[in-house]
Each structure stands twice: as C-alpha cells, then as structure tokens.
Design goal:
Layout lengths: L1 E6 L11 H13 L4 E7 L5 H11 L1 E3 L2 E4 L2 E10 L5 E5 L2 H10 L12 H8 L5 E5 L13 H4 L4 E5 H6 L1 H15 L3 E4 L11 E5 L6 H10 L2 E5 L3 H20 L4 H6 L6 H10 L1
Parallel strand pairs: 1-2, 2-5, 7-8, 8-9
Antiparallel strand pairs: 1-10, 3-4, 4-5, 5-6, 6-7, 10-11
Helix pairs in contact: 2-3
Amino acid sequence: MYIDFHTHGKLAKYLPFSIPYTNWLLGEAKNAGLDAICLTEHFNTQQFDEVYGYIASAGERQGDAYVFDGLKVFPGMETDIAEGGHVLSIGPMDAIRELNRRLEPYKEKGCFIPFEGLMNLFDEYPVLVGAGHPFREGGHIPELPPQMLKEFDFLDLNGKDIAEDRERTEQLTYELGRQLGKPVVSGSDTHQACQYGCIRTDFEKEISSFAELRDEMNAGRYTICVSPEAAFKVKIAGLLKRSLKEIHALGGDYVSVLLSSGGESPAVLAAKDRAV
C-alpha cells in the first residue's frame, strides 16, 4: 500500500479553496500510483475548515480515511512553530479540525506557537506527530532539546529535499531517526499533481486506521521508494505552481486553464515535451 505522508489540497495557502482543483489533485494522486495520502494542509491556510469539511462530506468513510475513487485520504495538518520549522500531525477528522480552531491565535506570522505548547495541545488528541522536512534551510527542529525531539512519532523524509540533495537529506534524516528511535516515512510535500510519486512509502498491509498506521510504522513493515524522476517531478511542480499563481495574480482563472489541458496531467505533458 503506497502512502504519501505530506501533501496539500490547495495550490497555495493564500489562494481560495477550489473544489475542482482539489478533486483534480486527488485524481492525479491515484493516477500516480498512490493508494493513500495524508492531507497535511497548512494550519494557517485560507478556508482550512472548508477544505476538510469538503473531504468529510464528499469522501466515503472507511475507518479513519475518506475514500475518493479508490484513494484514501487521511486528515492531517502542518503547523509552524516559533522556534522555526514545521510539525505534521495526522489524526481523526474531528480532532484535526478542532485543533486547527484552537490554533487560531497563532496564525499570524510572528505569532507562531512554541513547540512545547503545541505538543501540550496535541497531547489532548489522538494524533500522530511528525517532524516535517527537519533539515530544510530555515528550520531548527534538530536543535530542539532531546527530550522534546523524542515527542515526535515519526520523521518526514521529504521529496522536495530529496530532489535538491538526496544524499544529505537521507543521511541526516535517517541518522536523526536512529538517534531518537523513531520511524522515518516519506512525503512529497506537493501542492501540484506532478510532484506525486517523487517519493512514497510502501506498507506491507492495507491500512485504514491511525492505530494500524502507528503499529506498522513502529514495526518497520514498510519501505521507502524514491523515484528516479524525483528531481524532474519537483522541478516541474515548481514551474507549474509559479505559472498558476501568476495567472491568478493577473486576474485569470488558473483552475480553468489547468483543467482545459485535455485531462492529461502536467507531469505527462512535461514528459512528452522532454521526449521530443
């Protein structure tokens, strides 16, 4: 079972939520060979609750997941901390939505919650907590005191960082995982469909609940698969994001432009161009 632990359902946090765009993303995740994703939208994205309300209402409930045309969507969130860095949380839909509402006072830049305060909040809910891209420039998660680092349930081997420097990212992330005795799983960190599949975690069994997910992670019954096209996928995703944001800034409808490509993923179109 292929899972992507770090994904987004919007093009950018300050753009409006679009059901057609999110549906397109979910469809492309399935087309990329994924069986499940953790939807870890930014905690301070516009319309956070609308995004998750849509997932809850439109998806078919299966355990803790919401199924869209065969793709399982597990609710989650990505939260900035005052020390610098991003913390992932995945858990039941009601818990994620309530946590997001309680984080409202910390959504302004410069007012982010300290890590210890965030973990105290998470302790009240049945969520799994991950260190998002812990060695990305500008983040300071590895500098947290050891007793704080041990509160993480998993570490994120991040596709964007793998594309930039695979050797460094793998070496540092796996070493931190060994030091802490915590599993390392993978996430693409995509806001655009062509980044799906740059990295994914292959579990031995089908998973539908967070309890199963915790058990399988801790038992190490999974492997991480890095695509040989990872750098290309991430590069194309970055170009796509900038282009679509520019269309929006100029007053255009980036969703209509995107979906008028004949139904083919930008990743497929880009691959065809490269083959010419």
